[in-house]
Amino acid sequence: MVEHFFICPYCWENISMLLDDSVSEQKYIEDCEVCCNPIELRMRFINSELMEFQADSIEQ
Questions:
Q1: Long-range pairs for 6-14: beta carbons < 8 A, 24 or more residues apart
Q2: What is the pLDDT of residue 15?
Q3: Which of 10, 29, 38, 42 has the most crowded Cβ, counting Cβ within 10 A?
Q4: pLDDT band at residue 59 under the 50/70/90 scheme
Q5: What's CA 40's distance to the chain center, in Å?
Q6: Nearest C-alpha neighbor of 25 from the set 46, 7, 6
Q7: CA 34 to CA 53: how far, in whole Å?
Q8: Three-state secondary structure string covering 4-42
Q9: Is the pTM of this model over 0.90?
Q10: What residues are paired with 3 via a beta bridge?
Q11: Rounded-to-integer distance, Cα 10 and Cα 48, Å
Q12: What's one Pfam family here (predicted)?
């Protein structure tokens, strides 16, 4: 597991999250721990190192 900090696309709070580095590419939705809005998270690991991370609003 890797701790990663990012900014919520809704409330702009700094969020800490534990990421599972055992899966190389991931995409899922998780609620912000501050404002409870859904965030689409995308990440990519290479050799357990976080190479890409994106946190987006799911609103169109």
A1: 6/53, 6/55, 7/55, 8/32, 8/34, 8/35, 8/37, 8/39, 8/55, 9/39, 9/55, 9/56, 9/57, 10/35, 10/37, 10/39, 10/57, 11/35, 11/37
A2: 95
A3: 10
A4: confident
A5: 7
A6: 46
A7: 20
A8: EEEECCCCCCEEEEEECCCCCEEEEEEECCCCCCEEEEE
A9: no
A10: 18
A11: 29
A12: Zn_ribbon_21
Q: Please tell me the distance from the alpha carbon of residue 14 to that of residue 23, in angstroms, as a whole number.
A: 24
Q: What is the pLDDT of residues 21-58, one digit of tens each?
A: 999 999 999 999 999 999 999 999 999 999 999 999 99
Tokens in use for 38?
């859904």
Q: What are the sequence ranges of the domains in the chain?
A: 2-57
